[in-house]
Write a structure and sequence with these properties.
Layout lengths: L4 E8 L18 H13 L2 E5 H7 L8 H9 L7 E5 L18 E5 L1 H11 L4 E4 L6 H10 L5 E4 L3 H9 L5 E6 L24 E8 L2 E7 L11 H14 L12 E5 L5 E6 L10 H6 L13 E4 L14 H8 L3 E4 L13 H7 L3 E4 L4 H5 L8
Parallel strand pairs: 1-6, 1-7, 2-3, 2-6, 3-4, 4-5, 12-13, 13-14
Antiparallel strand pairs: 7-9, 8-9, 10-11, 10-12
Length: 377
Amino acid sequence: MPYPYVLLSAAVSLDGYLDDTGPDRLLLSSPADFDRVDEVRASVDAILIGAGTIRADNPRLLVNSPARRAARTADGRPEYPLKVTVTASGDLDPAAKFWHTGGEKLVYTTDEGCERAARALGGTADVVSLGPGLDWRALLEHLHDVRGVRRLMVEGGGTVHTQLLQQGLADEVQLVLAPLFVGDPAAPRLFGPGAYQGGRLRLTETRRIEDVVLMHYEPTAPGTGPEPVAADRHWLRTACELAALCPPSRTAFSVGAVVVAADGAELARGHSREGGDAVVHAEEAALAKIDPADPRLPGATVYSSLEPCTRRASRPAPCAELILRAGVRRVVTAWREPDTFVTAADGTGVLQSAGVAAVVLPEYEALAKEPNAHLLP
């Protein structure tokens, strides 16, 4: 179930507010930062906001730079990104600027809100029902598979940002901190209460832009079950990149692995044939670096570019068994093992039958195969 890369973008006051309660929108960004946002908009395939933001701010949500729009069309893309909104009720104002500027528009709603939204807009936008409730995973899957969206920018509001982070579906947060206070408890905040996907976020960039500060964050905490989260993609990509470090072999796959604790802390990493050991496997190499008594292991996730082996001649225990012995209850892989060296390998099935949440993200299969191209037909 591949999803677009989801980038959350917002500006807040020093005390964490998106706006005040006045009749006019509070401008938190600087002119130079507005231009940066325009650049980000020009780079994505779609921009999403909640229907509440349309009602509160009446945004046009455009790429304002003619040069950036020209660059998009020169690349064979639409002049403007797809504009997307989400509404459970279907309560939409057809006079809002959102519907009358830019390119294509798309509304996601519920079975109950679908007819109301379609009637209000009269063909101005495509209307898609997600079922009885707003299902963010179904929405992202539809955007990816049906609309071809690979990069999605989310500009609000607070409820939308909160839900995507709480469900572990945000790949990146771009947060601008403005040097002012709102101080009104009735004003809208960026993030609401509730249980968030655990772990600290990784700070990847800090930049001063005139009088505001831009911060880039990435989630690090793995998922807890069979549903993938955004951080899973980061760690699985890391495992696939580790596979490229393997000494080449004509008789074994090149595989990378990372073990990550529930809070997003990396416990260990490894790759096939690491340290001059011609037969060591990636998961084996990574797990050997962790104290078997480490209390974080049962809540950890093993990321491997190839599903763990279930049979091998070079060691007494295959990697699937080593994972079970370590007490790890979740494994994420990119590629099911082909019959090149072992017939009917099924590491995923073996792990699942033992109660492990074994997740396959096939969108990374091509990356996992790259260092193994010489072994494949």
